[in-house]
Amino acid sequence: MTTYYKEFQKVLLSVDCIIFGFEQNKLKVLIGKRQMDPGRGEWSLYGGFVRNDESLDEAAKRTLYELTGIRNLYMSQVGAFGEVSRDPGERVVSVAYYAVINVADYSNRLLRDHGVEWVDIQEIPAMYSDHNEMIRKARKLLQQKIKIEPISFQLLPKLFTLTQLQRLYEAVNGEEVDKRNFRKRIKDMDFIENTELIDKTTSRRGASLYRFNKKMYDADTTFKL
Amino acid sequence: MTTYYKEFQKVLLSVDCIIFGFEQNKLKVLIGKRQMDPGRGEWSLYGGFVRNDESLDEAAKRTLYELTGIRNLYMSQVGAFGEVSRDPGERVVSVAYYAVINVADYSNRLLRDHGVEWVDIQEIPAMYSDHNEMIRKARKLLQQKIKIEPISFQLLPKLFTLTQLQRLYEAVNGEEVDKRNFRKRIKDMDFIENTELIDKTTSRRGASLYRFNKKMYDADTTFKL
DNA sequence: TCAAAAGTGTTAGATTTACACCCATGA
DNA sequence: TCATGGGTGTAAATCTAACACTTTTGA
Question: Which tens digits make up the pLDDT trace of B61-76?
C-alpha cells in the first residue's frame, strides 16, 4: 500500500459508551470502576479501542455487544473528545456514543462480569477523565432525540402503562409534566396502541398496558412524541 | 513516559472545516479542489491533520486561522467520521467542525492562495470522500443553533437591515418566511437595536440599519431568535 | 410618474397550559 | 371502608399563520 501521509502523527482512538436504562422511574447509566491503569478504580464509562479494520460505529457496536450481549441497540454518536491530556496514560482521542436499553434485557451476570452497575443520572459520581462531560452531552442529545424518535420504547418493556411512559419522559427531561396533558398527547399518537391487557402490579385498580406499533409509526407522517 | 496501551493500533486524525458564509442572499460554503493525493483535483473541504500536542478544538482553530486569517471564529464540532475506507489513501478518522464568517472579512487573496471559493449550499458538487455528508450534518446543526444562539450576527456585517437578516434566516433554513411575522418577532428582541443609520444601497427609499447588542443579549433571559 | 424595496396590524386557528374530581380494587 | 394509583374534560391564554396596502425616493 502506498503511504500518503507518512509525515503525520497517529493517535490512539477509543470509543466510550453511555448506556441509558430506565428502572424504578429513574433514568440510569451503566458505569463501573475502571479495571486498568491509568485511573484504576475510578468510576468510568465502558469503552474500548478502535481497531484498524472497523469503523467508529462498528467499534461502538462491538463494545456495546461485549458489555450487554445485545446486538442492534439504538445507538448514536455524541461526539469526539480530544483534549491533549484527557487520558493520563498517553494521548487518546475518544468518540462517545450513547445507547438505550431495556434494563430487564440485561443480565445480572453481565453486570457482575464487567463490574458495572446502573447509577441514577442524578447521582453520577465524579468520573475518570472527561466522562462526566460525555454523560452530560449524551443526556442532552437523548432529550432532543426522544422528542422526535421512538426510542422511549426501547427503554421500556414491550408492554407498558401510560404512567410508566410518563415517568420515563419526566426522568429524561428532569421535570414533571401534567398527567392529563401528557395523556392527551399520547391519545393523538395512533402508534401507541392500547392492548386489552391490564397490569395489576402497580395499583389495585390496574392500568391498561400499551404497546408501540412500529408499522403504524412508520406509516405516520406527523411528528411525534 | 510509561506506555499503557502499547498493544493498540493508532490512526491518523484530521479535522475538516465547513465554513459558512452569507453573500447575495445565499448561504455559502468555502470549498476547493483538493491539492494533494489521493483525490487530487476533487472538490473538498479544507482540513488538516491533528498534531499530538494540540486538542481537536485547537487543531480546528489552527486550521481555520490558516485558511481565513481570523482567530476566534464561532466554531462547533459536527462529529467524528470514521468509516474504514473513507480516505482512499490510508485510514484517517476525521472530526468535522463548522464555523461561520462574515464574507467581507475574508480577503480575496486568501481565497486565491488556498484555492478555495464560496459555493452556494444549493449547488454543492459531489465531493471527496464523505464531505457531502459532513456538510449536510453541519447545516442541520447550524439550523438548530441559529435559533438559540446569536450566530446570525457573525454572518452579517456589523450593521445590517432587517431584510438582510430575514434573507439569512431563509437561506439557512431553506424556506421563506412572512415578512411581517418575521419583523414582529425581531421587534420583541431588544438586543437587535435600530441605529439611526439608513442603508441606501438596496432601495431608493433606504432601509434602517440594525446592530446586535451583545450586552443586552447577555442580560436577556428570554430565548431567542 | 413609476418601479422597487421598506415598512406596518389584525384576525382566525392551533397549541399549550392550568386545573380537580371520580373510579376500581385489594387489603 | 379506605388508601392507592388510574383515568378523564374544559376553559383561558399564548403562539402561529395568513394576509395587502402605503411609503419613500432615485431614475
Answer: 999 999 999 999 999 9
